[in-house]
Amino acid sequence: MGRIKQLMIKKAARELFATVEGFSEDFEKNKKLLKNTMPSKSVRNKVAGGIVRLATQERQKAHGTTE
User: Fold this and answer.
1) Contact, 21 vs 38, CB < 8 A?
2) Are 60 and 22 within 8 A, CB to CB?
3) Which residue, of 2, 28, 42, 67, has the greatest Cβ tally within 10 A?
4) Second-level CATH architecture of 6-63
């Protein structure tokens, strides 16, 4: 197996988060939404985690908190 590049994961997460509706801060829900679109389980899980991170950052921006 090849190595998964971190930049590729982050870019995919940003693009999916910006274009697809329905992602949230729930990792399991995001994982299910990505089930048929990702090439492997490890890539899917990493992208879902990246999306959780982006959703959390968006919520914090909207509420003005830095936690």
Assistant:
1) no
2) no
3) 42
4) Orthogonal Bundle (1.10)
